[in-house]
Amino acid sequence: MAQFTSLTSRVVALPVNDIDTDQIIPARFLKATDKAGMGDNLFADWRYQGDGSPQPDFVLNQPQAAGCRILLAGDNFGCGSSREHAPWALTGFGFRAVISTSFADIFRSNALKNGLLPIVVDAQTHASLLALLRAQPEVELALDLASQTLSFPGGSVRFPIDPFSKTCLLNGVDELGYILSFEDEIAAFEARS
Q: Where are the domains of the chain?
């Protein structure tokens, strides 16, 4: 898993509530067991027309979306069925963080296990961020995982994250990698038993 310590990036706003995992990555792409190319299918039914050409008015197809690493989404992001492919598609596109007022529990868990930081903010902060992006589309937000801080022009807020997920992201390890980091201690315990 890619390490996450801090990030400063422009933002793509997709303030649609209740975006489910089938909208993030349609079920027809779930046969893949490899993350490679998954970003090409992110929001496929919204990004592409029936003939496969880009939908010109979809936000991710706009030139200003190129290089953005933060997605500002609506409430209840990632609801629906459980699929690890959803964070794979988001990270495959280049996103490292998603900001919302709430996330579906399974999506949040899958995101954290795949190096994607889900950031929960209150409704007022969310509305302020949307207004800021409308006024200054090129604005950058700064994320610092160690201090759990989201900073923006005119302010900052702290965001919650469980300590284990935070440790894994800061060190760039998944659950197995975390356990393996104690390999010497495990071997010493086994030798004593």
A: 8-143
The Cα–Cα gap between 34 and 15 comes to 29
Find the angle CA(188)-CA(3)-CA(112) to the nearest 5 degrees: 90
Considering only CA atoms, which of 171, 146, 170 is closest in space to residue 158?
Answer: 146
CA quadruple 53, 59, 63, 65: dihedral sign? negative
Between CA 29 and CA 89, with CA 31 as vertex, the angle to 5 degrees is: 45
- DSSP label at residue 18: T
DSSP structure string for 103-147:
B-HHHHHHHHHTT-EEEE--HHHHHHHHHHHHH-TT-EEEEETTT
For residue range 120-147, list pLDDT tens digits in order.
999 999 999 999 999 999 999 999 999 9
pTM: predicted TM-score of the whole model, two decimal places:
0.93
Region 8-143: CATH code: 3.20.19.10
